[in-house]
Design goal:
Layout (H helix, E strand, L loop, with lengths): L2 H45 L3 H22 L2 H12 L5 H23 L6 H10 L2 H15 L3 H35 L6 H20 L13 E4 L4 H34 L7 H25 L5 H19 L5 H10 L6 H10 L7 H30 L6 H22 L7 E5 L6 H24 L4 E2 L2 E2 L3 H11 L1
Antiparallel strand pairs: 1-2, 3-4
Helix pairs in contact: 1-2, 1-7, 1-8, 2-5, 2-14, 3-6, 3-14, 4-5, 4-6, 4-8, 6-14, 7-10, 7-13, 9-13, 9-14, 9-15, 11-12, 11-13, 11-15
């Protein structure tokens, strides 16, 4: 598949999925907030406690359980879907999570329409997780991009996917606040119109995968041959471990603080409404665009490892300032410092895929995504607990912790950079799916005939002169014998 066909086949799918998810992720906190406020108002009145503290604590507890379900449940089904993808079923890691999105949104629609208890939304997170969720969808997408791109263009292609993801996220976040208000204006339950829109978008994505997604990823046993380059296996393993460690650490800092940022926007000192939350989330997706542009421009002068370092430093600086945000304009200044914070992960994925055989792209990239989710599942409850206990005196302390973890994640990258540039441990020797196999067979036969002819001449000459080539001594003869073997 050419790069152009691949782009027009996958990128619309990425845009549709992210548009739907961003609509939902922006509206969900507002629904949870309103439900928690309504539930705790009566209780706090009877107990003479502070209403604000009660609903904020309820929102934090709900999100902690909801995020853990979405982060831990995809582990086993995610590995199974990645294994199926590497066996040739490339649509499986993409299609199954989309079906899970539809089922989970149906549950949410029932909760909003029938006024079911808020805890039923945990079923939403469970269904999405058991079908793989976005983590498996993204891993399958990256594996398909890796299989159909060269090492040189892979990072750029992954960044384009991230760019598409970000632009769709901006549109979804901005539109969600207005749709949420429109839902209330027509008399529907809050969030119903957004969930219906999400269902329609996910259904269209399923149809796109079934009928439009061009999957021509070659199977290793058929026509994708990869030759292992001569390199030290120990160095290759160390490279993968360091890249893996950097990616997991950085995501633990970024994803956990992102979850807290949702609460930070809803509560004091910002206390945003749904429209402001939508614009705040949109600013986060705009960082994807600036990261893409930054990687495209700076890649002309700096290496991939340096780009990763710049991105991590950008995030650490932004989170450090975010810890001291008390007004809306300060929030956007802190966001500005994170302009390049989304460069690291696509580049880490690209470098990791260059260290393994093509038949392992799916399992390696999906496993990285799952490890990132596991680390988030471990750190997110800790972040929530710290945030709850510091809410009244310093709510930004969690962002300082994220900044420190991001700095620590730079250490493995600098170790790699000091040891030399990371290069591909595998090189393709036959990657054009349209190439005629008979040409390769004929080339092999021609080489075999040349060796046989060379062997006959060697025997006739007694090992001294062969087909115009003089073997000066026994050492040359020994070299010839090794060539023949």
């Amino acid at each position: 598949m050419s790069e152009s066909n691949l782009r027009w086949s996958i990128l619309p799918l990425v845009a549709g999925v992210q548009l739907s998810n961003s609509l939902y992720s922006t509206a969900l906190p507002m629904v949870v907030k309103e439900r928690c406020i309504n539930t705790t108002t009566t209780t706090t009145t009877n107990n003479n406690t502070t209403s604000t503290d009660s609903w904020q604590s309820a929102v934090s507890d709900f999100y902690m359980t909801y995020k853990i379900l979405k982060q831990l449940l995809p582990i086993v089904p995610g590995l199974a879907l990645a294994w199926l993808g590497d066996r040739g079923w490339r649509r499986a890691p993409i299609l199954v999570p989309l079906v899970g999105f539809i089922l989970s949104r149906l549950v949410t629609l029932l909760v909003l329409s029938l006024d079911w208890p808020l805890e039923v939304l945990w079923v939403d997170g469970a269904l999405s997780g058991l079908c793989g969720g976005f983590v498996v969808f993204w891993g399958g997408t990256m594996a398909l991009l890796s299989l159909n791109s060269s090492d040189k263009e892979r990072s750029s292609l992954m960044m384009r996917a991230e760019l598409t993801n970000g632009m769709a996220g901006v549109v979804g976040c901005v539109a969600s606040g207005h749709l949420f208000d429109l839902t209330a204006a027509v008399g529907w339950s809050p969030g119903v119109m957004i969930v219906v829109a999400c269902l329609v978008l996910h259904a269209l994505c399923v149809l796109h995968v079934v009928f439009c997604l061009q999957v021509h990823a070659p199977r290793d046993c058929e026509y994708q041959k990869e030759l292992k380059a001569e390199s030290d296996q120990r160095i290759q393993v160390v490279t993968m471990v360091l890249l893996w460690l950097a990616g997991v650490l950085y995501d633990a800092a970024a994803s956990s603080s992102k979850n807290i940022l949702v609460l930070f926007q809803l509560m004091e000192p910002l206390h945003w409404n749904v429209t402001q939350v939508g614009y705040g989330d949109a600013s986060g997706f705009l960082v994807i665009i600036t990261s893409f542009l930054g990687a495209t421009v700076m890649s002309r002068w700096v290496s991939d490892l340096s780009l990763i370092t710049i991105g991590m430093l950008s995030y650490a600086a932004g989170m450090l300032l975010m810890a001291f945000v008390t007004t809306t304009y300060m929030f956007y200044i802190a966001r500005t410092l994170t302009l390049f914070s989304l460069m690291p992960m696509p580049i880490i994925q690209s470098l990791l895929s260059q260290q393994v055989h093509g038949s392992s792209y799916g399992i390696v990239l999906t496993s990285l995504q799952l490890c990132r989710k596991i680390s988030s599942a471990v750190t997110n409850p800790l972040y929530v607990l710290i945030y709850k206990h510091t809410l009244n005196w310093f709510p930004g302390i969690v962002f300082i912790i994220s900044s420190i973890i991001a700095i620590v994640a730079i250490i493995p990258i600098r170790i790699l950079d000091s040891g030399g540039a990371v290069s591909s441990s595998y090189q393709r020797v036959y990657e054009d799916e349209d190439t005629d196999k008979d040409d390769l067979v004929q080339l092999t036969n021609d080489c075999t005939d040349d060796i046989n002819h060379f062997d006959k001449q060697f025997k006739v000459s007694g090992g001294k002169e062969t087909g115009g080539m003089c073997l000066q001594d026994d050492n040359d003869t020994e070299i010839y014998k090794k060539m023949k073997i």
